[in-house]
């Protein structure tokens, strides 16, 4: 808890290897390590906790009945709110005293950045680009090309205005879950971004409000599959090689016997 409160990322990363640590332990006020990191605005620590600590309780409440998502929204920690929502925090949960959700708490406390961030995520709540069924194309491109071809040649005044004005293009997929993941990992954003990697869960891309598995859980899930694949490959090769060797040896013995 002390490491999460002060932002000691190396300590939090090192403690993730301790199997006897209770990550959901609460202090006298009911705060957990996730609550302290979220309300303090330590985005890397929140990402470490939700991604590398199996069994992390996102909906654990303090003595006032507030969750980590609500506490981050009250403090206007917009990026922490986005990380918690991506990890599966419940946006519809309400506190028992005022009966308000995290979004309503953000509106009540004038946390405008958090309100805008939540609304942007709700517009595009799923990273369909990480699904194996995603087609990397821009759906609005055909309509824009047809519209441009249908327009007449611009006048001299329109050309002059276009030369003197600065274009501020809007991304066709601006905001949303994908931009959060890309910005968090690479500090880049592009509407034409697609991936060339195979995820461990291609049929279940990251979705807002859906609890995703932690890295240790994913590694445990993928280890038997990779182990079985590695065992099946060499074993079949060894069997075929052994059979070929036996045939050659048998042929040699037969020839020697005939001789």
Automatic annotation (TrEMBL):
Q: Which spans of this chain does UniProt mark as ANK repeats? A: 29-61, 64-96
Origin, by domain of life?
Answer: Eukaryota
Q: Which SMART domains match?
A: ANK
Chain intervals with Gly residues compositional bias: 250-259
Annotated Pfam families: Ank_2
The region called Disordered is annotated at 225-259
What keywords does the record list, in alphabetical order?
A: ANK repeat, Repeat
InterPro entries, alphabetically? Ankyrin_rpt, Ankyrin_rpt-contain_sf
Give coiled-coil spans as residue ranges: none
- Give the compositionally biased regions (Polar residues): 225-238
> Entry's PANTHER family?
ANKYRIN REPEAT CONTAINING, PHOTORECEPTOR ANKYRIN REPEAT PROTEIN
The entry's protein name is Ankyrin repeat domain 33
Q: Which organism is it from?
A: Prolemur simus (Greater bamboo lemur)
